[in-house]
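Running log. JK asked me to keep both predictions on one page so they can be read side by side. First protein, sequence followed by its tokens:
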Amino acid sequence: MQCAFLKTEKEKLIYAPVRLKISRRQINRYSKNCTMIPEKVKSVLDQQGLEALEFEAGSTPTSEMAAAKIGCEVGQIAKSMLFKGKDGRFRLIICAGDKRVDNRKLKAALGVKARFATAEEIEAQTGFRPGGVCPFGIYHRPILSDNSLSRFEVIYPAAGNDASGIPISFDTLGELVKAEICDVMS
């Protein structure tokens, strides 16, 4: 079975079998063989000798669900959140799954007041859908990494979809994405 990823007008990625007439049940059975990790993430993983953990589609969109699937603490899930500042600039912040953003600390770190990006802005700015934002392959946006993740030996950012996680150390992730260390969580 071959796989294709097609873009619709709304630029959503849709899984579709190519040139085969098969039932929905057969699609579900065969879809396990098709990778859902975006190419820009796979290339970084291959270059660095890293491997993503992959699960059934839609199984890791929240920190709690990802931790349950992976079998780790919620804090080990590295949330990648996109913010838009009042200055119009977007910034990606990687932080622990068990923490919340402290707006005062966020403003101090960014130098401007900021809000969460909308789902449309997230996809347009990162190429990833909410619940699966991966810090790999995002070269045109500043990336900050909250020190709340440094308490763990292994953390798990998403691999570009809502069904994955990448086991990696805090320091290695920071080096790979050239993240600036910050303190914006409470």
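And the second, directly underneath as requested:
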Amino acid sequence: MQNNLSIERSKQEQSAQTTKIKPKWHMTVLHVVYYLIMIAFLVFYMLPFWGTVMTSFKSNSEVMTTTPITPPSEWTMEGYESAMEELAQPLMTSLLVTLFGAAGSVFLGSICAYALSKWKFRFNNVFFIALVAATYLPFQAILIPLLQTINALDLYDNLWGLVLVHAVFGMPMCTVMMRGYYADVPDALIRQAMIDGNGVWQIYRKIVLPNTKIATITVFVFQCTSIWNEMLFALVLGGSHSARINTLVENMIDNTIATGTLGMQPEIAQAMDRLRTFMFARVYTNPVAKGEETKAKDMLCRLFEYYMRRPEKLPADFLPQLDFDGMERIVCDYIAGMTDRYAVYKYSELFIPTTWQMR
């Protein structure tokens, strides 16, 4: 009898506990407020993306006459077609740099994280602190030695040069992120694998990597996002002189439109300042360059005298300004707009005899 009472009492207690923790799914005023706030933030966050998608399906004339969030009156793919004509090759290059750079940095970071988390060696903590400190190193601080190194390796303006740079500079952050995941792999698995005769690399390949797939994918996606949005290295290490000038001009225009202040983005401006400092320190005041200074002055003087005597040789765009600015100013402006290479070319064309043959 007593046992039956005890059983009945325990059933009642369990039922009471179940009743207490049973969730109530009815909507309250607070729930409604929470959902409204989340929906408002979602709309606010997705509005630029919506505007971008809607604009991409509009014609050029409709883009200028409607708001970005308005759906197009006539859906068209001409925007995508023209974009692919101009950007197909650059997009493919960016995709290759992103994928290979992210894969390289994740691979290097994974090996470092494995060594730092599972194998103890002298100064391993010092090495890890140095890697953490490297994640805070601004890229602008090492642009000049980086450029010199890439030139020495003959990788300037080369796809694999950018891949190498992104792989190396992404490695510290990947190491920091993956070390925590690798530390959670049970040491008992490592010891058991060693007992079974597996070496260091076999343990890494058979034990550590299979148990940290989510970590690898997470870090890879993070690196892809970082490399895809980064343009400082590509600006300095890739492309021709004209491409770099084009990038600077476009960045100044975009930043001026966005902020209302004439100037480039801080990242690009810092890179430009450091490149300018390097050019004045190593190129413009270089003894070899200074030795050519007298020749350059003579060349410019002869070009100036030539166009002063023959104003009809000036480009047609400059001639209408003669009545307003005067001959000297127009000739000076024309010569000042020449690049070094073009000035040498014009001088050679005007004053240096060309070879010829009698036939």
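Observation for JK regarding the second prediction: The two ends are 132 Å apart (CA to CA).
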